[in-house]
Amino acid sequence: MTTSSPRAEREPLVYLTAATAGIRHHTRTTDGRPATRGHVDALHAHLTTLHTLLSRLTEQTRNERPTQSSHFEAARTRLWQAGEHLHHAFHQAPRTPAPDPDAPQDNTCHQDVDAGPPFVTICLRHLRTSALVRQQTTPADLHSPLHGHARHRAS
Known about the structure:
The protein is mostly helical. The chain contains 5 helices and no strands. The longest helix is centred in the middle third of the chain and has 27 residues, at 66-92.
């Protein structure tokens, strides 16, 4: 039987805490303008990564803690549904025109220019995740309403 050190148990929490702090900072520093495609893309990347983490947690806890695993599974499904909406929101956001090459450059970052790669990135990420979702989830689960309480197996 192997036991993990307290440091090994804390290490993943440090990264999750940092990611949460980054999102919390972003929620406090928004400038009141509508979300750009870059913002939606970054948020979609975050949700799909959380989806992957919840998939692993679901599998790791399935045998020893079936009720906890069931809750992870429900959360994973809800994250997929949120990611699906973000993907659609990305395609509804206006494209930012490319900067005029003759205009003086002001050293600001133009990450939201839709020359191709951000569009391809979010769609490929979404397709990869959707392939996993089809293997892990039933269509009925994916289309269940977001409200109410799910029934979970008793331990």
